[in-house]
Specification:
11 helices
Length: 449
């Protein structure tokens, strides 16, 4: 700007660049000025021709505003605002979590209550052992207000029954345990006083006296039904559990798989039991899937009948879910797989219970075993209690009073079975008793520890 060609205007501003850009047609309304910073004046570049001259420089903050005290006050204000924002965020998050928790809790509660209902009502057991129904809205809302989740209300029974009972409250379950304990304790003392009545020969000399005093019902099943002459504890629940397992595996494998509920029947009215059980299963499936199409082949249970001597009248065509096998059960302590039928002429086949279960691919699926094998029960029970996958319900017909009678009942009790049904059947001079056992978890018998 000190070059002699840099002329200055009246204000002392350099005009060389302005003159050089004057011919440019795109900037007719502007002129560029280059000014020096001098005596506290500043200015700019690209100011309009009509802009007033630049005033004196003024800093953005005053001395008071830029002091340390003002800086600290500004920091405190920012921190306070940050804390307020954090508090609001925490409150909103907490409110969201609470709303989600309440909605989830209400959903699980009503779903649990719905699953716990049988025929629309919650089945309860009164202290006197009788069954009653409790379906009032006060009990439902009362439980919700008391924050009683289904697992807290019914969890103990479900846990100690291996998932079988899901509609018995904890208080009622404890009452049932106390009742079972008192009966079992009384039986322990009865064994000592009646063991001499057992006949070593197996004859029914003192059978009446022994059966009257020994091995009575020690567990109250809330809903037991006679099907084909055999008593089953809550068969509706049996079908429901099988249906739930089938649906889960159906979703995983997305194809039809083997049924999840199997009933083994040998002797007695096996064919009648099989047909009635499948009819009951179909009716239960229609009840569970109301409004849906339920086909006969969608029943989650199947029945296997074992007839070693051809004593059962087998129809030419069997319904879906009903299977017949031409062998019977034998205890593993007796070697050999062949025997002689009642007519002393026909040779028949026998297999152990474990061989049958493994051979048919039913490990962990046999829910019911109904056995009437004319005194073979006194030996076959040893194989029954040793199964790796226990059978939930065992229905056996007992013949005579052999010397090992107490051993059978004690072994079943030690394996976790309780007696929920006992029925007397008169046959000629001898006496026959039909027994039904239910498998419970070891925790049910914790009072003995």
């Amino acid at each position: 700007h000190d070059h002699p060609e840099n002329e200055r205007d009246d204000d002392g501003n350099t005009t060389l660049l302005t003159q050089a850009l004057a011919p440019v047609p795109c900037l007719p309304a502007f002129r560029f000025q280059i000014r020096r910073i001098c005596n506290g004046t500043v200015t700019g570049i690209m100011s309009s021709a009509k802009d007033p001259p630049a005033g004196p420089f003024r800093s953005r903050y005053s001395a008071e505003e830029s002091s340390d005290a003002a800086y600290e006050e500004s920091l405190r204000t920012l921190r306070c605002m940050g804390r307020k924002r954090s508090a609001v965020a925490v409150l909103l998050s907490s409110a969201f979590v609470v709303v989600v928790w309440v909605v989830t809790r209400a959903y699980l509660f009503f779903v649990g209550m719905r699953e716990a209902r049988l025929d629309g009502d919650i089945q309860m057991i009164s202290p006197d052992g009788s069954m009653r129904h409790d379906s009032g809205p006060l009990s439902t809302w009362g439980s919700f207000l008391r924050r009683d989740r289904p697992d807290k209300v019914f969890g103990r029974a479900k846990s100690e029954s291996g998932g079988f009972f899901d509609a018995i409250s904890n208080n009622q379950w404890e009452e049932m345990k106390r009742e079972a304990k008192s009966i079992i304790d009384a039986q322990d003392s009865t064994i000592m006083t009646t063991s001499h009545l057992l006949s070593e020969s197996g004859a029914n000399i003192h059978s009446n006296t022994w059966w009257v005093d020994n091995w009575k019902i020690n567990f109250s099943c809330p809903s037991k039904i006679s099907i084909g002459g055999r008593w089953i504890c809550d068969p509706k629940r049996v079908i429901t559990i099988a249906d739930e397992k089938l649906k889960v595996r159906w979703r995983r494998k997305r194809r039809r798989i083997k049924r999840e509920c199997v009933a083994y029947v040998s002797g007695g009215m096996a064919m009648e039991f099989g047909n009635q059980f499948l009819d009951f299963s179909l009716a239960r499936m229609i009840e569970l899937h109301s409004g849906e199409v339920v086909w006969k082949d969608s029943i989650p249970c199947e029945v296997h009948i074992f007839t070693p001597d051809g004593g059962q009248e087998i129809p030419k065509s069997l319904r879906d879910g009903l299977h017949v096998h031409n062998w019977g059960f034998r205890p593993s302590i007796k070697l050999g797989s062949m025997g002689i039928a009642a007519d002393n002429a026909t040779t028949v086949a026998f297999k152990t219970l474990e061989e049958t279960i493994v051979g048919l691919g039913h490990s962990g699926k046999v829910s019911i075993l109904a056995l009437d094998c004319e005194s073979c029960e006194w030996d076959i029970y040893r194989d029954l209690v040793k199964l790796k996958e226990p059978i939930r319900q065992v229905l056996m017909q007992m013949h005579g009073t052999p010397y090992m009678a107490n051993e059978l009942f004690l072994a079943m009790q030690e394996a976790g079975y309780v007696i929920f049904q006992r029925e007397k059947e008169i046959r000629g001079s001898g006496e026959v008793y039909d027994y039904s056992w239910l498998k419970l978890s070891p925790s049910f018998f914790n009072w003995q520890a």
